[in-house]
Amino acid sequence: MSGRKAFQRNGATPEFKMALVGALGVGKSALTVKYITRRFIMEYDPDLEGTYTKHEDWDGHDVIVHVMDTCDKEDSDPGRYLKWADAFLIVYSITNRQTFDVARDYMESISIYLKSQGRECPVALVGNKIDLERYRQVNKAEGSSLATEYDSVFYETTAAEEYELVEKVFHRVIQEAHHDKYGHILQQLYIADDRTTSWGQQQPQSQQSAQQLSQHPHLHQQQQQRRPKSPKGASDKKDEKNQQKKTLNKFFKIFN
Ligand SMILES: Nc1nc2c(ncn2[C@@H]2O[C@H](COP(=O)(O)OP(=O)(O)OP(=O)(O)O)[C@@H](O)[C@H]2O)c(=O)[nH]1
After folding, report:
1. Which superkingdom heads the taxonomic lineage of this protein's source (predicted)?
2. How do strand 15-22 and strand 87-93 relate by DSSP bridges?
3. Going along the chain, which residue ranges are E strands?
């Protein structure tokens, strides 16, 4: 049975929740707003955290995507996105090695958390700001290697240039999340990495709504109940490793 047929029989609108996490200043907000509005907005309030919703039109069918642009602070509870999300984008800046180290910590912590819950979610490692190649501190092979270590997909991208670069990352994660939820072979449903097939055009957002979002990034903020999802085997590669760094110790409080 093809994914498409199953999708058509199942009347419910597919819905996915993904959380962007990472160090401050890596471009989580820029990537979120780029995906939602197709626009690059230069400055955000670093203390703001929000959840945004976008309707994708795939081959005439509605797909709802919720994106949480997180902002972790010392005392904040990561449970707000760990429990909520169907998928995670762990973002670092290729121009800042420290943010790559933080991304590594997130990879580890999220992996351990999911395993403790018997859950598995798509996790993508995303190296952002490739438009600033001249300032690169983390080479592509390092990112790729870290992602491989955790059985995650890896992308380098930039919020500052073509929308398609950002779209590709989000669509790949949606692909994976769709597979987890509906158990379909993704290549039959959506796109291959080179985007040769099925993803429909984005529903164009009105200029007005894009402007409103840019001026009030939390316009579409909303809370949603998490939908159940089918588990997928977690990476076993890090079972023995328990080297949580201070900044991420809070993760353990959730499930210990
Ligand atoms: N050149 C370039 N600048 C970017 C890119 N993404 C984000 N920025 C800039 O980097 C700065 C930080 O981006 P944010 O999106 O606020 O980063 P964040 O990860 O959300 O961090 P906080 O807002 O501190 O939580 C802003 O000035 C952005 O305009 C990118 O891909 N390329």
Report:
1. Eukaryota
2. parallel
3. 15-22, 50-58, 61-69, 87-93, 123-128, 153-156
Q: Beta-carbon neighbour count of residue 129 at 10 Å?
A: 24
Q: Which residue has the higher pLDDT, 73 or 185?
A: 73
Which amino acid belongs to residue 188? Q
Residue of 28, 36, 132 to mutate, ligand 1, most atoms within 8 A of C-beta: 28
Question: What mean pLDDT is predicted for residues 56-81?
Answer: 86
Which ligand 1 atom is the nearest neighbour of the CA of 41?
A: 29
Residue 133 CB–ligand 1 contact under 6 Å: no
In the reported structure, the alpha carbon of residue 128 is separated from the centroid of ligand 1 by a whole-number distance in angstroms of: 9
Distance 232 CA to ligand 1 centre (A): 32
Least confident of 63-72, 150-159, 161-170, 237-246: 237-246
Least confident of 7-11, 40-44, 100-104: 7-11
Report CA 165 to chain centroid distance, whole Å: 14
Only one residue has tokens 């670092």, namely: 92
| Residue 144 confidence (pLDDT) | 98
Q: Is the ipTM of this complex over 0.95?
A: yes
Q: With a 6 A CB cut-off, is 131 part of the ligand 1 pocket? A: yes
Strand partners, 196: none
pTM attached to this predicted model? 0.75
pLDDT average, residue stretch 121-135: 97
- Token pair in block for residue 195: 């985007």
Query: Using a 6 Å cutoff on CB, does residue 132 contact ligand 1?
Result: yes
